[in-house]
Model the fold of this input.
Amino acid sequence: MEFVGRGLYDLPQAARLLRIHYNTLRYWIGETGHPSLVMRSMEPEKLLTFSELMELYFVKMFKDENVSLQTIRRAASEAAKRFKTDHPFAVQRFDTDGKSIFATLIDRESNEEIVEELRHGQLVFATVVRPFYRKLKYDGPSVGEFWPLGKGDRIVLDPMRKHGQPIDAETGLPVETILDALRGGGGQDAKTVADWFDIPLEAVQAAIRFDHSLAA
Done:
């Protein structure tokens, strides 16, 4: 299978990037016998692609706001049909149409409890998920880059660079390489590591911020 430009993340790394428990990730992607919340293309290799990782970010945001997995699945199914894609949360059109997708689901339901749940999902999209799109850059209709600290910072996940691993956008140096240097030999300061790699001090500081954001 061709891996170039797809991004590759093993499950422990994906769980850390998503800031969820490893077993939660396995549940979400169908590793425990339940239906997967995302369409997977590399299941035998126990890897996730960049598009799958981005979709799971959206799932996490919905779940963090107590939207049920049932509602998330129904919204994903409706969006997949509307956008004709296997990765409906990771396409640009969901940015503008997500709220109306929840509204469509509300209109189709008569059960008041489910209707209220869908209204909640609609609100979460408008107030929580929609601002997340400011961290994304699109390559055509689909997400092409993810800037986890915001586009004004230096860290990017780009499936066309270093297999989608978090890197310093300017130098291309993997964040993990910078962090390993900081921790090695009992630890050293950011300025020393910047000098070792001949990179700006800001690149090391951004790597530290990103690492702290995952631990938060």
Summary: The mean pLDDT is 92. The chain has nine helices and six strands. The beta strands are 9-10, 47-48, 136-139, 142-146, 155-156, 167-168.
